[in-house]
Specification:
The protein has 274 residues and is an all-alpha fold. The protein contains 15 helices and no strands.
């Protein structure tokens, strides 16, 4: 009987060792598939490993990796579920919270994203990603005072942070401080002369405040940097229409169509050019 117990224990230990080895092999194979961009196979292998050993201590990382694979496959809901399962095991992982928050934002679930960013900031108060995205959510909610706080925290660490500087310029404009907003945008254009997004933002701000020629100048600068920027041609057309320059407007719209905007989308504007 004693020998039988020993034999059974030995067999049990061997089975456990083989099972653990199988789990590790599957995980290793899955990671190899990720490196080779074989994402469908990687997803299947991660699921297989999780099913094989549902209580393995490494499963938080596996759920996180599974979520990342699913995100890349465009399976947003499944990715959120995987990150949530990972966070059930390790609730204070900033990386997993940030990954899930980004997916919530993608689905326009602002409150859920907001809570994840708040949790990250509670854990790491100076986390720039969380601060910037929470500021964005505050902007969407028109909670401008709170957004300004987050942008300023980022700038305390990184005085040249472009996103935070743009955010503060937008806040100044929304709160009626147009000259302050323009001063900020002028500094951004000076610091980032090759960044088309900065030029376009200043052009839009100028347009909204009736500085049409200045806006057109900035859009021409955008097109020097990227001659195929269809949105800039559309904006130029809109400004020309406002100036009653119908021929110039039509030319700008036709350029936009050349670079990808559908004619149907601009049909009503083209009618106004006659």
């Amino acid at each position: 009987m004693k020998y039988l117990v020993l034999i059974l224990c030995s067999i049990f230990s061997s089975v456990c060792a083989l099972q653990a080895q199988s789990y590790n092999e599957i995980v290793e194979q899955a990671m190899g598939c990720v490196k080779k961009d074989s994402l469908v196979q990687a997803e299947q292998l991660f699921r297989k490993a999780l099913k094989l050993e549902p209580n393995n201590a490494r499963n938080a990382l596996l759920f996180s990796n599974l979520g990342t694979v699913q995100k890349r496959l465009g399976k947003t809901d499944e990715a959120i579920e995987s990150y949530t399962l990972a966070l059930n095991i390790i609730p204070y992982s900033t990386a997993m919270l940030l990954n899930r928050a980004a997916l919530y934002l993608e689905k326009d679930l602002l409150q859920k994203a907001y809570l994840d960013y708040c949790n990250v900031i509670d854990l790491v108060p100076k986390n720039q990603e969380a601060r910037l995205f929470r500021a964005y959510i505050y902007m969407q909610r028109r909670e401008y005072k709170e957004a300004r706080v987050d942008y300023n925290v980022v700038l305390e660490q990184d005085v040249k942070n472009k996103t935070a500087r743009i955010g503060l310029a937008m806040l100044d404009e929304k709160e009626g401080r147009f000259q302050s907003a323009m001063d900020a945008m002028n500094r951004l254009v000076s610091d980032y002369p090759q960044d088309v997004s900065v030029w376009k933002m200043r052009a839009n701000m100028e347009w909204e405040h009736g500085q049409l020629d200045a806006a057109l100048y900035d859009l021409d600068e955008v097109l020097k940097l990227d001659a195929r920027d269809a949105a800039s041609y559309v904006m130029k057309g809109d400004i020309y229409l406002e100036q009653k320059k119908k021929s110039d407007a039509r030319e700008a719209y036709e350029k936009a169509i050349t670079f990808g905007v559908s004619r149907a989308e601009l049909l009503e504007k083209l009618k106004q050019c006659k």
